[in-house]
Amino acid sequence: TFISSSQNTNQRFETPMEAAFDFSRPIIHESERYEFVRKIGAGSFGEARLMKDKLSAQFVAIKYLERGDKIDKKVQREIINHRSLRHPNIIAFKEVILTPTHLAIVMEYAPGGELFDRIRTAGKLCEDE
């Protein structure tokens, strides 16, 4: 049995997949809650977009991954682990939105860019950074 660490629920699930994705929530289209601002990145599995939450007016980053068995299984562990992390220096997980074609992982937006790019251009970080 798995326990969801979502902020809204403390449900028990039989599989890690059920724990990773809150199937009690309806499949929605992200445009119902989030407004597109701009594309902020892309990779082999999908892309990241800067979006604005229509309810809170806060910016969020949404990572879009095309749905499919291979992606769903690979991503479920990331989602389970990310949901349980709570630290001021780690990007906060918000929610997962299931669309008919994509998984949309909603996260806190960090305007400073990717850590990898920062290290590549400026070298190693000092302890204070």
UniProtKB/TrEMBL annotation:
Superkingdom of this protein's organism: Eukaryota
Gene3D superfamilies hit by this protein: Phosphorylase Kinase, domain 1
Transferase found in the keyword field: yes
GO function term, MF aspect, one: ATP binding
Record key words, sorted: ATP-binding, Kinase, Nucleotide-binding, Serine/threonine-protein kinase, Transferase
Signal peptide annotation: none
Protein name: non-specific serine/threonine protein kinase
Native organism taxonomy: Eukaryota, Viridiplantae, Streptophyta, Embryophyta, Tracheophyta
